[in-house]
């Protein structure tokens, strides 16, 4: 069980602020700034199996390392890919933070995301449980995302192509 006192921890507050900042960047479609939030060895993962922890051996909708994030951002910004043409307008609400682990080097959080997307006169609402592992920077070094896992609540159903990042 999560200890609520962790939410008062400055390290946890920094991690939560980074998660909220990430959501704002995605809603503004500032994909290059979003990409810079990740550590060089960081991963962005959207698994199909909602229970898996073995992402390398499981089927994933997204399993991006630095190179694949760069390619995904390029596609989102080019305007020629279906995901970039008339990209959806989004609003994310992220809340229900649970602290899974805290050290002086890293914070792991679980949260709930409700994402509303509007595209071509259609509004969709998607829910996901997020897990972020945040590497805490020291001095002038920024806090960075080491791993983001977005477990879509409908991941085992057919998912339409989306013009945004989860």
Give a brief outline of the structure.
The protein is α+β, with helices and mostly antiparallel strands and 166 residues long.
Task: Describe the secondary-structure layout.
Layout: H1 10-27, H2 31-35, E1 38-47, E2 60-64, H3 66-78, E3 89-102, E4 106-119, E5 122-135, E6 144-152
Parallel strand pairs: 1-6
Antiparallel strand pairs: 1-2, 3-4, 4-5, 5-6
GO molecular function: oxidoreductase activity
GO biological process, one term: 3-phenylpropionate catabolic process
Pfam family, one: Ring_hydroxyl_B
Commentary on this structure:
The protein has a 6-stranded mixed β-sheet. The model has no long low-confidence stretch (mean pLDDT 89). The longest helix is centred in the N-terminal third of the chain and has 18 residues, at 10-27. The protein has helices spanning 10-27, 31-35, 66-78; strands at 38-47, 60-64, 89-102, 106-119, 122-135, 144-152. 22% of the residues lie in helices and 40% in strands. A hairpin with a 2-residue loop joins β4 and β5. It has 166 residues and is of the alpha+beta class. It holds the Pfam family Ring_hydroxyl_B. It comes from Corynebacterium hylobatis.
User: What share of the residues does DSSP label as strand, in percent?
Assistant: 35-45%
What is the top-level CATH class?
Answer: Alpha Beta
> Do you know the CATH architecture?
Roll
Average pLDDT, all residues: 89
State the end-to-end CA separation: 27 Å
Instruction: Please tally the helical runs, counting DSSP H or I stretches of 4 or more residues.
Output: 3
Q: How big is the Rg? A: 16 Å
Q: Largest sheet, described in full?
A: 6 strands, mixed
Strand order of the largest sheet: 2-1-6-5-4-3
Q: Low-confidence stretches at least 5 residues in length (pLDDT < 50)?
A: none
Shape: globular
Helix content: 10-25%
Number of strand segments: 6
By CATH, the topology is: Nuclear Transport Factor 2, Chain: A
The SS-based structural class is alpha+beta
Helix-strand topology string: HHEEHEEEE
Keywords: Oxidoreductase
Pfam families: Ring_hydroxyl_B
Protein name: Aromatic-ring-hydroxylating dioxygenase subunit beta
GO molecular function, one term: oxidoreductase activity
